[in-house]
């Protein structure tokens, strides 16, 4: 379980295909401190298990299915990825409950400065609009954000300067793919309503 409060934007050292999986190696400072083999880390919002740690880096096995369904498919050495260690008892609850199970990818349509803030508009997968609520929560590349506008399968969020500087959002451009995880409570409500109508 995560909160969507990014600890650090790490740098991809390598992402290579191995025998049983892809092996992703990420370098960082704060977000990987005291990390142990077997610990969970959200990498761009994807819950991954550390299989090697030490030396300011960690390695993760990534299944082909995960690579195919997320924006991890397009990352390369030097890319910035958002990192958050799993929530521990007693940790502060900042953003919202994020499971690290990506629902799909969206495409950045517009990302521009408006005054001191930045406006980000994203087109999500077809049919996702039923899970997007104005003023509700959404995780974009693992970042807990508040929906400022919702229009069918498109939504927009405002990015404060701190979030821009502390995450990989600063390298996004129109056309960039981002991982999306819709609000967990909303997904359960949507399923219950659908079952009652069936």
Number of domains: 2
User: Distance between termini?
Assistant: 31 Å
Give the uncertain stretches in residue-range form: none
Structural class estimated from helices and strands = mainly beta
Order of helices and strands: EEEEEHEEEEEEEHEH
Shape, principal axes of CA atoms: globular
Physical arrangement of strands within the biggest beta sheet: 10-9-13-7-8-12-11
Radius of gyration: 17 Å
CATH first level of the largest domain: Mainly Beta
Average pLDDT over all residues: 93
Using DSSP, what is the number of strands? 13
Number of helices: 3
Biggest β-sheet description: 7 strands, antiparallel
Question: Can you tell me about this structure?
Answer:
The chain has helices at residues 64-69, 161-166, 184-197, and strands at residues 8-17, 22-27, 40-43, 46-54, 57-62, 80-85, 104-114, 117-123, 137-140, 143-146, 149-151, 154-159, 177-182. The protein has 198 residues and is mainly beta. It folds into two domains: 8-85, Beta Barrel (Elongation Factor Tu (Ef-tu), domain 3); 104-197, Elongation Factor Tu (Ef-tu), domain 3 (Beta Barrel). The chain has a seven-stranded antiparallel sheet with strand order 10-9-13-7-8-12-11. The protein has a six-stranded antiparallel beta barrel with strand order 1-2-5-4-3-6. Strand 7 and strand 8 (117-123) form a beta hairpin. The longest helix has 14 residues, at 184-197. The chain starts with 7 loop residues before the first strand and ends with a helix.
């Amino acid at each position: 379980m995560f909160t969507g409060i990014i600890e650090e934007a790490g740098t991809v050292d390598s992402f290579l295909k191995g025998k049983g999986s892809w092996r992703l190696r990420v370098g960082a400072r704060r977000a990987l401190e005291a990390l142990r083999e077997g610990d969970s880390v959200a990498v761009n919002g994807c819950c991954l298990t550390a299989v090697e740690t030490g030396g300011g880096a960690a390695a993760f096995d990534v299944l082909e299915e995960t690579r195919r369904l997320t924006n991890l498919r397009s990352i390369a050495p030097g890319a910035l990825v958002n990192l958050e260690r799993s929530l521990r008892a007693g940790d502060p609850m900042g953003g919202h409950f994020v499971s690290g199970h990506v629902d799909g990818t969206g495409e950045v349509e517009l990302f521009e400065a408006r005054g001191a803030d930045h406006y980000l508009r994203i087109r999500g997968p077809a049919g996702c609009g039923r899970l997007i609520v104005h003023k509700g929560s959404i995780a974009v590349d693992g970042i807990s954000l508040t929906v400022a506008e919702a229009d069918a399968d498109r939504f927009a969020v405002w990015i404060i300067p701190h979030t821009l500087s502390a995450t990989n959002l600063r390298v996004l451009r129109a056309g960039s793919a981002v991982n999306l995880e819709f609000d967990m409570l909303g997904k359960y409500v949507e399923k219950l309503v659908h079952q009652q109508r069936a």
